[in-house]
Amino acid sequence: RHGASKSRLIALRLTMLSRLGSRSPLLTSTRRLCAPALPKGVLTTHYKKIDRATDERWQDIDMERFADETDLLIVGGGPAGLSAAIRFKQLCNEAGLDYRVTLLEKAAGAGEHTLSGAVLEPRALEELFPDWEERGAPLKTPVTSERLGYIPPWFPSLNLPLPIMSGTPTDNHGNYIVRLGNFTAWLAEQAEELGVEIYTGQGGVEVLYNDADEVVGVATNDVGVAKDGAPKDSFERGMELRAKATLFAEGCRGSLTKEVIDKFSLAAGSEPQTYGLGLKELWRISPEKHRPGHVDHTAGWPADNNTWGGSFLYHLDPSEGDGDTLVITGYVVALDYSNPYLNPFKMFQQWKTHPSIRPTFEGGERLAYGARALNEGGFQSIPKLTFPGGALVGCAAGFLNVPKIKGTHTAMKSGMLAAESAFSAMQALPEPAEAEEAAAEEEEMPPPFTGPVADLGPYQSALEGSWVYEELHSVRNVRPAAHATPLGMWGTFLYAGVVHYVTRGREWFTLSHGGADHERLKPASEFSPIEYPKPDGEVSFDLLSSVALTGTNHEGNQPPHLTLKDDAVPVARNLAVFDGPEQRFCPAGVYEYLEEEGERRLQINAQNCIHCKTCDIKCPSQNIDWVVPEGGGGPAYAGM
User: Fold this and answer.
1) I need a surface site. Which of 79, 231, 423, 572 has the fewest CB within 10 A?
2) Which of 360, 612, 614, 619 is catalytic?
3) pLDDT of 140-187, one tens digit each?
4) Active site includes 609?
5) 94-108: b or e for each residue (b if 16 or more CB lie within 10 Å)?
6) Per-residue model confidence as pLDDT tens digits over 81-130
7) DSSP 8-class letter at 15
8) Does pTM top 0.85 for this prediction?
9) Among this protein's residues, is 506 annotated catalytic?
């Protein structure tokens, strides 16, 4: 195959675009929220929402895009996308074939946008790399002890122990505490050794279709567009990457994934996805309090009985931090809550003040902070996985096992299954036309690829016949049990402790999640504002100092990537009816309602965005549409 010369072309082009859209200096703790310099009332100027064909500022701008072709294109460099790339290349090597595999990752470096607890079940890893220990996989902290507790909302000074029965989803025997960003970076190294081309700092902004409405690749984002939507002198069009098969591995609520799900009605046969928001911190604690390998989970307070919420606290082996006594901790709040005054960030800070939790952090130092939305819909919310020219893998589809509090193993396995289907389908395609072969031999660019595309249909049946599907089916009723009865979280405890323990998920019924998360939010008039304790600066902290620890930043003079379908809706509906919930559910201080000249307006501090996608999910008007910013922007997580 003619991959070498084309690889040089794509590398040169993408490197140039990455440098043009390079990151600004990282945040410091003194940074202030910055207001967009836009005309009054204007919030959305992104070219995904504004037609540049009618803008005279763009009339003389060359809008032609450089196009390149690959065999398998993967959008997203998390565990699912990387596992797909690795498995595909393994099959190529076994068969003596040299298919080209290209992976795009919007973060500036592999793993820098990856955030999870995380306790890893190594099942998929053992299938992908049976020799993972010899390869140096960063699994250094086997689980040695664990505790599960319940903090009653009506008696929050307690932390009642709950049983952990062997073989149940809460049993972590044989699992490992990991820093998932480090694990992702290691997977990227393995992929590159196999010949996968990984381009970081490159976000997919547009799905490409042929005349038959088949997916034939994606386009990367333009760089050099000013905040008001005008071209800068440095403007460069993004490039097209066309492929015989495209896998979307963008993670939870990916922007292009949303597009293909809608275009191909992939969610028509499933329930709406339901989500959670996970907030996380990395701490260095006193050595005498450190218990390497210990796992501690709680459910309940500060969430009330009608809100799904729980915590994690994991003690890492000193080898995970150059001898430091590190713990990773966090709190997850389901986004199907009803009270618009609920503030997930403040709930997390409040949880750390519990008398059974606080002593762990006293005398310690907080090193990092981050947040990310996660899929919690499970079995009921899995969309159709394939469409003409591509497929969904990992959290783009939603394979999180909620009672296990794990999804990396299922995401990896889905990527591996998709790769196997893509490899078989690729071999069934006809050989390239003679004209394209001749152009390749002369190192000329052939016409843009428009097909034929690979049929990934068998991936659907492969996934449904796998242990991933079986596992998710067995726990399908745990999460919705919280809403199936008036008992709230007690309904989940009763189901998990009695029904699921006896049936192991073989019951005849399947509970419903009961609708989309944004539909559950109720008007502010039905609630009173929640008074959270003020941060003490020792174990609980304010929002801006927390955002500074994410290392997040974006090129300041670019169109805000938090776009609105209608710039008038925030004040007219979200503020008027729900008292502006954006300013509370966002864990990074992106949204603020300000008063100027007697009028309220929404300010979007897009530079603060840590790409959690919560606003895209929970906005009660579904007016916020998160799109990819210039490449490399966003958080700079280090082993989160």
Assistant:
1) 572
2) 612
3) 999 999 999 999 999 999 999 999 988 889 999 999 999 999 999 999
4) yes
5) eeeeebbbbbbbbbb
6) 999 999 999 999 999 999 999 999 999 999 999 999 999 999 999 999 99
7) H
8) yes
9) no
